[in-house]
Amino acid sequence: MKLSYFAWVRERIGKSDEEVALPAGVETVSDLLDWLRSRGENYEYALQVPEIIRVAIDQEHVDHSERLAGAGEIALFPPMTGG
Amino acid sequence: MADEAQGGGVHADMAAGMYDRSQGHTSALSEGADISNGSSPMSSKSIAPKVTVGEARIDVAAETEALSGEGAAGALVTFIGYCRDEEGRLSALELEHYPGMAEREIRKIAEEAAERWPLIAVRAAHRHGKIAPGEEIVFVACSSRHRGAAFEAASYIMDFMKTKAPFWKREHLKDGSVGGWVESKATDESAGDKWHRI
């Protein structure tokens, strides 16, 4: 599964994307954020306030309760500031 | 404040092209008497918005001219969001975006507007990359028979574009340093609420 990161989430994690194999039990966006935070200080720094992290699955905004099954690309990013 | 780095509603060029063409259509005659005015949903067939995301400057004059219509439109509302210099502190804003999703989200918002209001044309363009103070970041234009629909639709598109389209601004400062990421504003986050239908 491909994970993509943008803006300060990307900077804090230190990469713009990566391929990961999700361990058993990681079923929702919320689970994914928890699991990522356990992967190292950089992830913990990027995701320390998980509730503000916005998530898109296959380029569609989703809630943290969304299930990951069938997802191709999951993007994590801060609240948007365009316009 | 870092979160003030872009000219939200301040530089709105809201009235461009509207007054001359709406002569004879506005006033009490059409206000309320015509269901195509204002936010009355008009259904049937909605038009296809034109949406672009790119690094190049937006030719506002040409875009506006292209939407001037050929008699069908009585109103054209345009909005331009500019990069401010923040009292001379800023050398540029850098806009990061999520390629693909950025255009897709803007198109979705523009299509919602076209379903909700009786629009004749919708145009939305958003830039990414480095943008100098005084340059345009975003351009939104809506034309309709009467001004109410065009005003509301343009406002609706901007409100949702700011919170749903995946773009992120960061400041580049005059002293050569890279400043922080612009923080989202609570007022922007909640701006979409007023459009919720009862």
TrEMBL record, chain A:
SUPFAM superfamilies: MoaD/ThiS. It holds the Pfam family ThiS. InterPro entries: Beta-grasp_dom_sf (IPR012675), Mopterin_synth/thiamin_S_b (IPR016155), ThiS/MoaD-like (IPR003749). NCBIfam families: moaD. This is Molybdopterin converting factor subunit 1. It comes from Fulvimarina endophytica.
